[in-house]
Amino acid sequence: MTSAAGRDDQAVHPLVRAAAAWSWRLLVIGAAAYALLWLLQTMGVVVVSIAIALILTALLLPAVDFLDRYGAVRGGAVAFVMVLGLAILTGVMSFVVNQFVDGAPQLVDEVTRSIEGARAWLINGPADLSRDQINQAGDTVIDSLRDHQAQLTTGALSTAGTIAEILTGALLCLFTVIFFLLGGRNIWEFVTRLIPRAQRARVREAGAAGFHSLAGYARATSLVALVDAVAIGSGLAIMGIPLALPLASLIFLGAFVPVVGALVTGFLAVIVALLAKGIVYALITLALIIAVMQLEAHVLQPLVMGRAVSLHPLAVVIGITAGGVLAGVIGALLVVPAIAFFNSFVRVLAAQDPDSEADSLDDEDGPLVDSNVDDPGPKR
User: Fold this and answer.
1) Angstrom distance (rounded) from CA 85 to CA 159
2) Residues 274, 115: contact at Cβ < 8 Å?
3) Virtual CA dihedral for 290, 248, 110, 287, nearest 10 degrees?
4) More confident: 40 or 230
5) Which stretches are tagged as biased composition: Acidic residues (predicted)?
6) Cα separation of 138 and 122, whole Å?
7) Helix, strand, or coil here: 241?
8) CB of 347 within 8 A of CB of 359?
9) What secondary structure, in 3-state letters, does 111-154 show?
10) CA 240 to CA 247: how far, in whole Å?
11) Considering all CA atoms of the chain, what is the largest pairwise distance in Å, rounded to the nearest integer?
């Protein structure tokens, strides 16, 4: 005999029952995702530091493994690579800052001449403005800055707090990289002990494949960023654009955000060229940047990335947008390597034969990825 509850269920259309079942499950998944995002934002300094440490580990690991294979003590190899990397980074940053300080006066002079030329054009040109109107507009800008002085001061204090967070994150990142290089495999094996024994081996293989793709992405992106910076920086230097080297450095950093990073930082070079040299040099700079972007998209990316870390442009754009909305610039910077990692991780985890899937990823990565990159250090 059919119960009252059964009769009520039968009275509901199957499509409605299915929609209701999916709805409460999606609500639970959405709540879990929201809780995870809240936790990641709350622990932002820690999460970002560890993520950057993973990328740096992927870049430095081949050098440490090379020294280790030829008889160097693992700790000594890590210390040597870290000191050498910090020395190179400090030297490059000091050189860039000095170049910026040396080139800033020239840029100021060029901008001053451009402003004076624009003022003369507004007075004597088709606009036919009076000098009093232009001076009044300048006074309005100055008064606006004075009226918002309190907000500017608050922003400076907020910036000081941000600098403290950056220093904390940098120290955490430094120590994390050291320990990842020393015994990253042991750390991963310890973490995966939380996984049930039946699935533990597959999760470890998936993590190794994800790190393998992350390493390929990090090194390939570094190479692409270097080519972008050298090509555009050389063009700026040949044209005599002020601050060519600092602008090339910004383009190098911006290229780590795929699709839009180098384009946005390159736009700054166009603005500097416009202010310093005029519209003709600005158009030439824009053409140079577009040409380099085309070279990157059609030659460099397919050649050095390989199919294993190749992501659909739509996935990249959506990922960068979502990362920027959720975590600002740092989110846009880290979201694509995260997608590359989880792309390989899920492929191996969901494959019926994870060994074959991992081998296919190794074959597709190309010559930039070492065969031992998925092992952050031998067991000690």
Assistant:
1) 28
2) no
3) -10
4) 230
5) 356-367
6) 13
7) coil
8) no
9) HHHHHHHHHHHHHHCCCCCCHHHHHHHHHHHHHHHHHCHHHHHH
10) 13
11) 97
Quick check: 346 and 202 in contact, CB under 8 A?
Answer: no
Q: How far apart are CA 235 and CA 75, in angstroms?
A: 43
Reference 275, options 109, 46, 144, 53; nearest CA is 109
CA dihedral 264, 158, 36, 215 (to 10 degrees): 50
Per DSSP, the three-state class of 216 is: helix
Alpha helices in the chain (DSSP H): 4-11, 14-42, 44-69, 74-124, 131-147, 149-191, 197-239, 244-254, 261-277, 279-295, 313-350, 354-364
- Residues 60-108 have pLDDT tens digits of 888 888 888 888 888 888 899 889 988 887 887 777 677 666 766 666 6
Q: How far is CA 92 from CA 86, 246, 249, 330, in A?
A: 10, 11, 9, 22
Percentage with pLDDT > 70 across the chain: 68
Tokens of 98: 């000095």
Look at the block and give the residue holding tokens 């400090």. Answer: 90
68 close to 74: Cβ distance less than 8 angstroms? yes
Please give the span between the terminal C-alpha atoms of the chain, in angstroms, as a whole number. 69
Structural Rg of the chain based on CA atoms = 27
Chain length of the chain: 380
CB 316: neighbour CB atoms within 10 A?
A: 19
Looking at residue 194, the DSSP 8-state letter turns out to be G
121-125's contacts with Cβ under 8 Å and 24+ in sequence apart are none
